[in-house]
Write a structure and sequence with these properties.
The chain is an alpha/beta fold. It is built from ten helices and ten strands. The strands form two sheets. It has a seven-stranded mixed β-sheet with strand order 3-2-1-4-5-10-6, with helices on both faces. β1, α3 and β2 form a beta-alpha-beta unit. α2 packs across α3. It is globular, with a radius of gyration of 18 Å.
């Protein structure tokens, strides 16, 4: 299948404009835990000039500001930028594309991207842009989800779609969602972009949900690709998928909560 980067970019943009009002509620509890590992990986502290690419609701940007960093959050979705501005005052948020950053070369000491890379039509372009806007010696860190065999929320949803619905629905083709979950691929790509001291490791996040429908709700409202796949199912298939995801989630019940392993891969390097 050939990828039309412009079509995929447009599909993701429209998807994030739609998902923005739900994203923080359904994914915020898990993705906020990535902020500290990412900021530690770039050595963010007082006066660090830091760019948070694909900032979404601005979780990492806010955590960096709390460390005294001088922060800019960037996202291509106006709805996300509006949400980030509502949540965090005193941080600069601006619209822009990760694949063509609106900054001069060498503008930042640190660049981070939390769960953004897997949504990009041209991930290599975004990594090259991060390299360009970093000063020599500056640090880059990004996170993506681990593969569905260990990131349980994705694993149970993909299995349910495969079993009860149609995974192969007509959508603009994008790069493989789990491409950078592979540590070797992440390392190779950062090194190819010119980063040194590349480190790739797994961060054992967990996703705590109040309801066994939490995974379905999150993926159907707060995501893009899986959300589009779900919207393309028949009502009967959708009901079966939802039931299967619920039953799988129930296996992770602890007291009145559902606690799912959602490891992430953290890759970092020096400009
Ligand atoms: C999964 S969310 C991650 C949000 C936040 N960083 C977090 O960790 O929760 C992905 C974000 O990437 C943004 N995004 C996707 N493609 C982008 C692009 N080409 N340029 C800038 N932002 C992009 C989306 O609008 C969305 O806010």
């Amino acid at each position: 299948m050939t990828i039309d980067p412009a079509a995929f970019h447009e599909f993701e943009h429209a998807g994030w404009e739609r998902a923005a009002e739900h994203y923080a509620d359904v994914f915020g509890d898990v993705t906020t835990h990535m902020a500290a590992p990412l900021l530690d990986a770039v050595g963010a502290g007082a006066r660090t000039r830091l760019l948070d690419v694909a900032t979404g609701p601005g979780f990492v940007a806010a955590a960096a500001a709390a460390r005294g960093a001088i922060v800019t959050g960037l996202d291509f979705s106006p709805a996300m930028i509006a949400d980030a501005r509502r949540r965090h005052h005193g941080i600069t948020f601006r619209e822009g594309d990760a694949e063509a950053l609106p900054f001069d070369a060498g503008s930042f000491d640190a660049v981070v991207m939390s769960f953004g890379l897997l949504h990009l039509a041209r991930p290599e372009a975004a990594i090259a842009e991060a390299h360009r806007v970093l000063r020599a010696g500056g640090r880059y860190a990004l996170s993506v989800w681990a593969g569905p065999e260990t990131a349980v929320g994705f694993g149970i949803a993909l299995k349910a779609i495969e079993e009860f619905g149609r995974a192969n629905v007509p959508l603009p083709e994008g790069p493989p969602f789990f491409r950078f979950s592979d540590a070797d691929e992440a390392r190779r790509t950062l090194e190819h972009a010119g980063f040194t001291n590349v480190d790739v490791r797994v961060v054992p996040l967990t996703w705590t949900l109040a309801s066994a429908d939490g995974v379905y709700d999150a993926l159907s409202r707060g995501g893009v690709r899986t959300s589009a796949v779900l919207r393309a199912q028949t009502p009967e298939a959708l009901a079966a998928i939802r039931g299967a995801i619920r039953r799988s989630t129930e296996r992770y019940q602890q007291g009145d909560r559902f606690v799912l392993p959602m490891p992430a891969v953290l890759a970092s390097g020096t400009r």
